[in-house]
Design a protein that fits this description.
Elements (H helix, E strand, L loop, with lengths): L6 E7 L5 H14 L4 E6 L18 H7 L10 E2 L5 E4 L12 H12 L2 H4 L4 E7 L9 H4 L5 E6 L3 H17 L6 E10 L4 H12 L3 E6 L2 H8 L4 H4 L4 H15 L11 H22 L7
Parallel strand pairs: 1-5, 1-6, 2-4, 2-5, 6-7, 7-8
Antiparallel strand pairs: 3-4
């Protein structure tokens, strides 16, 4: 279902972690390198592709299907930076229905319209909310729509918790044809213990790090301009970070079935890190931990 020659990639992450920013910059870097890219926002907020297309209003697939049984591609898409095809799945009226169903509706419509074949995409990126990988939000990794998934995480416990939950879903569905894990993208990383903590988490779960994206004011500045870093600040070091990450994702075939920690082990592991950070800070006066 869905692959049609392109690489279909799901990128998950908890709300507010920078998932859409990361996904859009990866899309922009791939398009800049000459690839044909589709980005499908699968978050009910429907703002995944804003910085790729200037932030103009874009009707969602769910809203368009609610208003009409016959929907044309040009009614639910926009051509953004370097020709990226931007689509927002959308969600239900607040308080009614499952937000994850928008993903099913979007993919079903795009297949019906032969978008993946006609657009001749090299990469299709699905930007998916990952706080709770419920039945709806698990669709991209469960039903063979994608064959690989990445998770955006910081070193904060709730981001790691969300990543571990995604690992549980992949662990459940991958053996029967679902997506495997391409790696963890460490985002908004500050100098200190953040990288070491994420490295420790991936080593304990049999996963890998796809790349680290440092925290940078260039990201916030670019978004204030309504653009990706690749477009707004192409000569910056931060743009090169995204280019390196995009190149890794484009070539990576080290796809794995991770081994998530159970909740008790995860909390014990987190406390160990909390103790290590406090101990090291007391010794040095800095929040750094070497592992």
């Amino acid at each position: 279902m869905g692959k049609q020659g392109a690489k279909h990639i799901a990128i998950y992450g908890k709300g507010g972690i920078g998932k859409s920013t990361t996904t859009s910059n990866i899309s922009a870097a791939l398009a800049e390198a000459g690839h044909k890219v589709i980005q499908i926002g699968c978050d009910p907020k429907s703002d995944s592709t804003n910085t790729l297309r200037g932030g103009n209003y874009l009707p969602t697939v769910v809203d368009s299907l609610r208003d009409s049984s016959r929907v044309r591609l040009e009614e639910i898409s926009a051509i953004g930076f370097k020709g990226i095809l931007c689509i927002e799945a959308g969600g239900p009226v607040p308080g009614v229905g499952c937000a994850g169903r928008g993903i099913n509706a979007a993919v079903g419509l795009l297949q019906e319209l032969n978008v993946f074949e006609d657009f001749e995409a090299d990469y299709v990126l699905y930007d998916v909310l990952g706080d709770v990988v419920c039945g709806g939000f698990a669709v991209p990794i469960r039903d063979g729509i994608t064959d690989r998934a990445y998770v955006v995480s910081s070193s904060d416990f709730m981001a790691i918790y969300a990543a571990n939950n995604l690992f549980k879903a992949i662990n459940k569905y991958a053996p029967s044809g679902g997506a495997k894990l391409g790696g963890v993208i460490g985002n908004s990383i500050l100098a200190g213990y953040s990288e070491s903590l994420i490295q420790d988490f991936v080593s304990r779960t049999g996963s890998t790090v796809a790349g680290f994206v440092p925290r940078s004011p260039v990201v916030a500045q670019s978004e204030l301009y309504g653009k990706t870093v690749i477009e707004a600040s192409p000569e910056s070091a931060q743009a090169d970070v995204y280019r390196t990450l995009a190149a890794y994702i484009a070539g990576n075939e080290d796809l794995r079935i991770p081994n998530p920690m159970n909740v008790t082990d995860l909390r014990d592991w987190a406390r160990t890190w909390g103790d290590a950070i406090i101990t090291d800070e007391a010794k040095t006066g800095k929040e750094t931990v070497a592992r």
